[in-house]
Specification:
The chain has about 300 residues and is an alpha/beta fold. The chain has nine helices and 14 strands. The strands form three sheets. A seven-stranded mixed sheet has the order 10-9-8-11-12-14-13, sandwiched between helices. A hairpin with a 4-residue loop joins β5 and β6. The longest helix is centred in the last third of the chain and has 14 residues. It is globular, with a radius of gyration of 19 Å. Bound molecules: S-adenosyl-L-homocysteine.
């Protein structure tokens, strides 16, 4: 299988907006190359390191299946989007766009150099499967081989989910991972003590990669991975349990669409962790959440991204 790599080089302040655009248009993964993001220093704070860094140019790359017809309008729309950024007081700088065809085999090897061990919270460490890591006694290591799926743990939206997840008592709990990508959140939930994890993604590659990663982490018997389109897929599963914790690191549009389904799915007083929300859409999401009678427990920010912890 071949992919179109759509790479934009631009100033850091506009990078999250472009990453979000690529994701909403169907990019399977996002790569952010930031010379200042030192993510492999154990215990260090990524954000502080970025603030002190002199380099301002980063690159954001999205990946689209080459044969997909829906790809045709993406490039002209992306150009328009970049040209409109200044209207939203974001300066992309002297930015440029580069396209490249990548074969899956080449891609799998080329991205490995950008991914190393990341400590995401007090206890959780994400470690690429090809790197040897000796954890401290209190650390929980999630081994990852992301392949083409989204979610190697370094994206702020994933990190915020992992941090929120770590703060929950998951013992004997049922967790839903809606849009599981690499399975990273499901694996974290299982390793944090969840009894049952149900993971869903509509992308067959994500499902394949999630299953492999679950096996790699020895949680294959706790995490059930399904391929299906949300939300309809959920209501076709027989005997679906109520969820104690629901994870949704998705686009804002999809989050808004599936809020009623998440309410049906969650048990009373269950927790819903919403992530993948770009700041501009926060008010709209808050409004929907409150209108549906949910309580907002926490709002967390990381750059342009926001996550919400909501209680039923
Ligand atoms: N949970 C991972 C991945 C989040 S990316 C993490 O936190 O890092 C969002 C994922 O949702 C992608 O893998 C995408 O394929 C999936 N997705 C997007 N729309 C979907 C839909 N309608 N139904 C099911 N999965 C969907």
């Amino acid at each position: 299988m071949s992919w179109l790599e759509v790479k934009v080089c631009l100033r850091r302040e506009a990078s999250e907006a472009v990453a979000n655009f690529l994701m909403e248009r169907g990019s399977t993964g996002i790569f952010l190359e930031d010379p200042c993001a030192v993510s492999n220093i154990k215990g260090d704070d990524l954000i502080n390191l970025q603030v002190n860094c002199q380099h301002d140019l980063v690159s954001v790359a999205g990946y689209f299946p080459l044969k997909d017809k829906s790809l045709d309008p993406v490039i002209p729309e992306l150009e328009k989007f970049i040209n409109s950024l200044r209207e939203f007081r974001m300066n992309p700088g002297d930015c440029f766009l580069a396209l490249r065809i990548v074969k899956e085999e080449d891609w799998e090897n080329s991205w490995k150099k950008y991914f190393s061990t990341v400590k995401v919270s007090d206890r959780l460490v994400i470690n690429p499967s090809w790197i040897d890591y000796q954890p401290d006694l209190n650390e929980i290591v999630i081994k990852m081989d992301p392949g083409m799926a989204f979610g190697n743990g370094t994206h702020p939206t994933t990190m915020m989910c992992l941090q929120a997840l770590e703060a929950q008592d998951l013992k004997d709990k049922t967790v839903f991972d809606l849009g599981c990508g690499t399975g990273i959140l499901s694996i974290a939930a299982a390793k944090l003590g969840a009894e049952r994890v149900i993971a869903v993604d509509n992308d067959y590659l994500a499902v394949k990669v999630s299953k492999e990663n679950c096996r790699l982490n020895l949680v294959g018997s706790v995490v059930e991975v399904y391929q299906g389109d949300l939300p309809a897929f959920l209501w076709g599963i027989d005997g679906l349990p109520e969820g104690d914790v629901l994870l949704a690191n998705l686009s804002s549009a999809l989050i808004i669409k599936i809020i009623p389904d998440m309410i049906k799915l969650g048990r009373k007083e269950g927790i819903i962790i919403l992530s993948g929300i770009i700041r501009d859409r926060l008010d709209e999401i808050k409004e929907r959440v409150l209108a549906e009678g949910l309580n907002i427990e926490e709002i967390n920010y990381e750059g342009e991204w926001v996550s919400l912890i909501v209680k039923k």
